[in-house]
């Protein structure tokens, strides 16, 4: 059963990485997607510096939450330790994605949170997407990738990571997460589209401000939470 779960997870993570290319969220060997098997504490992630065309489920890398790589594996993504910190802090996420997608990265490089200007944003992110502080020299010299994860976790001390599945790391780029690698990719795609819309909106109206809370609540909560009504409900078998 354990081996079957890991085999499926490697397939899921491979597909998530391939989808990053298909959705124009990465170029060359930029970016990475990962997933975790919570029962064993093993994370599956893209190998470092390998072109997406050369990826396969078999060359996905297995890493324990303590950072130990399975024997005989390729080197994992250079961002692995950031992923591990997110999995350790955000206890029920199942997938993490990091990209340098053009528009989301532009906001990150500008060291600006992504404002919630309209209902498209409110459908997926509850409020503005936060931007971290710029990482300190001490953190860079210590354990850069691990400290990047710590920086993200610290940014979420007063933010619910279930309602905000994305962050902009200042001067760096976006990270997203979800219940599995596929949702993490979806959130990355939504983040990039909204970042593009927001850039155009701010160019058209520099004074554009955040959406009012009543409209934010209406759009977010109709899709998320116990009272959500968007989409089709599953009918009991007796009603089908």
Which terms would index this structure?
six-stranded antiparallel beta sheet, L-fuculose-1-phosphate Aldolase, 240 residues, single chain
Give your account of this protein's structure.
By secondary structure, the chain is of the alpha+beta class. It has a single domain (2-221), classed as Class II aldolase/adducin N-terminal domain (L-fuculose-1-phosphate Aldolase), CATH 3.40.225. The chain has 7 helices and 6 strands. Strands 3-2-1-4-6-5 form a 6-stranded antiparallel β-sheet, sandwiched between helices. The longest helix has 24 residues, at 181-204. The two termini are 33 Å apart.
Short account of what is shown:
The protein is of the alpha+beta class. Helix content is 40%, strand content 12%.
Q: What do the pLDDT scores average to?
A: 95
Please report the total strand number as a whole number: 6
Oligomer: single chain
CATH third-level topology: L-fuculose-1-phosphate Aldolase
Give the full name of the CATH homologous superfamily. Answer: Class II aldolase/adducin N-terminal domain
Strand order of the largest sheet: 3-2-1-4-6-5
**For the record, what CATH class applies?**
Alpha Beta
**Count of DSSP H/I helices:** 7
What fraction strand?
5-15%
Uncertain ranges: none
Which class best fits the helix and strand makeup? Answer: alpha+beta
The secondary-structure element order is HEEEHEHHHEEHH
For the record, the CATH architecture stands as: 3-Layer(aba) Sandwich
Helix content: 25-40%
Total number of domains:
1
Largest sheet: 6 strands, antiparallel
Instruction: For the record, give the distance between the C-alpha atoms at the N and C termini, rounded to a whole number.
Output: 33 Å
The shape, in one word, is globular
The value of Rg in angstroms is 18 Å
